[in-house]
């Protein structure tokens, strides 16, 4: 396959166009998907008080065990 | 700080710095007949000092801290201090550069102090030294908080932070001894570039590993911005710096590209350095610290997602607006214009989102200089992106290009947006990180705010005036069709503006010095303070990283 100028132009005019259009649609759909609203709200509020240290999972990961 | 490292971690740190010493020694030996040799000694010294700092503590007692109940903040603290150190150095350089333009005698006739050498010390110093350290430090803070997870290990954050600073030191010292590959914002030579690739990959991996440990189902949007900064800067850096060293014993290298391709690659890099170094990472700061400081969640989380992808998509294409009316094909220039104009939409969406968040908290903005820094940053972000989209239009660029208008645009973005959001974040972060009640002096924060704002306004207005005057003088013709003004005429017209700019810069620089002092005094003098909720939350309150439904 020849990597010519024409080849790139053809690629961007065909595949590139639909790739960008498709991605825009997908992202807009994701951002405004109604059922994700709760998760987004929770995320937006989650930063307001986060100074309380890492969450405590039921089992502590090995590298976090008290050193000693 | 060293006492929080286990002995294995200390040994690992010694191994890494020891290897650095050897690399420095090799560079010094191989490059002894070349400026690269000087860099060898600098690397050797940098790594050697760190080697001994760690070595002295190698046999100290093991730490007793329980790592599962706290975040790892030591590298963040040092990163903030380093950012402020670089701010003072590089903005001081900026004032010197500005003064040289007003009074050329200030060069003092040395080679190292010539305009062409200290200018990149200023630009790299502020962008990478100040901006880069602030980004790394705040990203360490934010990724742990928003994930409610501690960093996975304690050596790689130090490697990233100190390795990056080694890059900055090599870059800045190289310019002074005349090492440059003449690509703006990518001046360092091949060995420094290679080193940065290693540091950056470790940074990316560290970020991903921390996110992988998160205890929140959704990755907060600030992290997306930081990740785009890390990932895209890596790609840009690698491609733009593709080069063949003339020899392995010298600094000189030749770019893999030539002619207009070289120009296009450079400005594809250059503008995306603006986008992904000076914008997305700082938007991450904005999306975290502004809502937090205002005590209100971001106005529209959905909009922040949408503008994220808008910014990421559009920015990649705009580099060609730096090359209007050149040998670059017309359609590539037009592509750059189109995307630059479209870019205004997500940019203003971000700025608007930030300002709308403040709706209902304006009394806080009035009373709290820290929040005011962030508010002003959002306003300047809106202004400079509007200006940028305008300047990208070809006929406008015909007037603005090569003039001080560009420099005015740069600094309304760099001082008004980048530096303001960083200072705001530093003031918000310092008491939290060091567990202090407040900043040492709120008056000083207030002073800093007004110095920074007036400095920026003076700087930017001086450059707008100077740039437009200059541009118009260049295109004024006499009745017989010859140029009306000589180049020297324009210099004389610009001189008062250059003095004003140097003065505005001096105000801004003074503010940065006050900030450094205030932070140091906060650490040394302000009483310790235990936050109200200084206990870890149990997992009951949290959701696991991957919710059961997915
Ligand atoms: C103390 C405040 C500052 C002063 C006095 C200052 C001064 C200067 C001067 C005199 C130049 C050279 C202009 C020319 O070649 O005509 C310059 C360029 C530049 N400065 Fe600053 N500066 C300051 C702050 C900053 C900050 C905070 C940043 C970034 C975060 C920044 C980023 C840049 C960049 C990117 C350029 C290159 C512009 C271009 O090539 O068009 N500066 N600055
Ligand atoms: C929508 C967003 C933006 C657009 C479309 C834009 C567009 C432009 C244009 C057209 C130029 C002049 C190119 C030339 O004539 O050579 C320029 C230069 C520049 N802009 Fe922006 N800009 C934007 C935002 C920003 C922001 C937020 C910053 C800083 C934080 C920034 C930093 C710079 C720098 C450093 C240069 C100078 C590059 C150089 O010549 O060395 N821009 N920008």
Automatic annotation (TrEMBL), chain A:
The chain crosses the membrane at residues 15-33. Keywords: Membrane, Transmembrane, Transmembrane helix. Residues 47-68 are annotated as: Disordered. It comes from the Bacteria. It holds the Pfam family FixQ. This is Cytochrome c oxidase cbb3-type subunit 4.
Automatic annotation (TrEMBL), chain B:
It catalyses: 4 Fe(II)-[cytochrome c] + O2 + 8 H(+)(in) = 4 Fe(III)-[cytochrome c] + 2 H2O + 4 H(+)(out). GO terms for biological process: electron transport coupled proton transport; oxidative phosphorylation; respiratory electron transport chain. It comes from the Bacteria. One of its GO terms (molecular function) is heme binding. GO terms for cellular component: plasma membrane. Its EC number is 7.1.1.9. Its cofactor is Cu(2+); heme; heme b. Heme b 2; high-spin binds at residue 409. This is cytochrome-c oxidase.
